[in-house]
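Hi R.,

As promised on Friday, here is the backbone we talked about, encoded as structure tokens. Could you run it through your design pipeline when you get a chance and send me back a sequence?
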């Protein structure tokens, strides 16, 4: 069992217990388009964050919470970034993407 965390750009967060990763179509619906997997450190573990691949081109709003997680990961590995995550994001905690 794992946890799916849907981090919306408007600041709302929805969580649900899952036994496996959602299928491609559901992930695309959750982020509003084609997906991109970004690996982040969440709760001390390497975790997949699913974002909208075309978010910048589409002019999606900045997602402050997802951006904070992404930037904290960069700092953890000794890097800095001002890159922001835009649009809704999905974290799959304890769930394989395979």
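Update: got your reply. Pasting your designed sequence below so it's all in one thread:
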């Amino acid at each position: 069992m794992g946890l799916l965390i849907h981090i919306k750009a408007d600041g709302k967060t929805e969580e649900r217990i899952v036994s496996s990763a959602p299928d491609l179509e559901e992930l695309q619906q959750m982020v509003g388009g084609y997906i991109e997997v970004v690996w982040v450190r969440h709760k001390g573990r390497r975790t997949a964050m699913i974002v909208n691949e075309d978010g910048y081109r589409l002019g999606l709003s900045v997602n402050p919470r997802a951006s904070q997680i992404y930037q904290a990961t960069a700092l953890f590995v000794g890097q800095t970034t001002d890159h922001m995550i835009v649009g809704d994001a999905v974290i799959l905690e304890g769930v394989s993407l395979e």
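One thing I noticed while checking it: Residues 36 and 53 are 5 Å apart (CA to CA).

Thanks again,
M.
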